[in-house]
Each structure stands twice: as C-alpha cells, then as structure tokens.
Amino acid sequence: xxxxxxxxxxxFIFMLVLFFIGCAKPPEAEKSAAQSAxxxxxxxxxxxxxxxxxxxxxxxxxxxxxx
Length: 67
What we know:
By secondary structure, the protein is mainly alpha-helical. Helix content is about 85%, strand content about 0%. The chain has one domain (about 1-65). It is built from 4 helices and no strands. It starts with a helix and ends with a helix.
C-alpha cells in the first residue's frame, strides 16, 4: 500500500512539474503569426467583405493583448 501511494504521489508531482515547465513562457511565435494574419486581412479589405468575423478577430486580439 505504501508503494502504491508513493507511486501516485510521484506521478502527481511529475505532472505538476511538466505543467509548470510547459506554461513558463508566452507563445511569441503564435502571437506574431496571428498579428501578421490580422494585418494581412485588414490590408486585403476584410472589414468590407467580412465585417463581423473581422470585428470578432480584433476583439479577440485585444483580449489576448490584455493577458
């Protein structure tokens, strides 16, 4: 029983360590790709042809910048 409890606790601690290592830095590459896509859509006239999705994208970008 002690071995099982030790194994479960070790696995739990290992998972926590992996979680904190994985969340240590913000995703800069994805952020720059999203900004490039937003700029490309704006220059292509997305506000004229797809006003609602473009407005939603800008709103989501603003929320991402806040975080």
